[in-house]
Amino acid sequence: xxxxxxxxxxxxxxxxxxxxxxxxxxxxxxxxxxxxxxxxxxxxxxxxxxxxxxxxxxxxxxxxxxxxxxxxxxxxxxxxxxxxxxxxxxxxxxxxxxxxxxxxxxxxxxxxxxxxxxxxxxxxxxxxxxxxxxxxxxxxxxxxxxxxxxxxxxxxxxxxxxxxxxxxxxxxxxxxxxxxxxxxxxxxxxxxxxxxxxxxxxxxxxxxxxxxxxxxxxxxxxx
Length: 223
Known about the structure:
The chain contains ten helices and seven strands. It is an alpha/beta fold and 223 residues long. A five-stranded parallel β-sheet has the order 4-1-5-6-7, with helices on both faces. Strands 2-3 form a two-stranded antiparallel ribbon.
């Protein structure tokens, strides 16, 4: 299950990194897999609602479009939802990209880190052996222009790494993915925050490489 904010749900016309991950798993994973989640649409900027089905590839299968992501939603919003989503859809692996919206509008670094812990507890209450890959916050254009916000992003990433180290367990492992190498805002985003096609590949690669290196899932991301 892919869990995230606007960078994960994507906007009308996007391929999304979720699509890139589906392509990667199809090419590299010999074992059967399912992508699950309660949602399947993109954000529609014309109506400001999650109502678009206009994926960059119209042949992206309906079942593979499933996710738990929302425009403007962060750890604060997903922590109360994750348990029911995991339980209802029988998720065993979470790929999580959250935090930027929290820090930008809702909570400071320490509060956001507490919501990470609430999220993990909720997921485990639904599935004690669940595993997860967590992506650090990737600084956006605001973080480069606003030193205070940039500092909050850096501080949260420190706390996220500590949470992963504290909470990971043999029966329910947590991985901290690496910030994608080569992430340059002008090339990896189309507006200073949201991923371009190049950025989608970088995000998918960060998750894919973490799962391959730690758990032997699939292979190295080939793009």
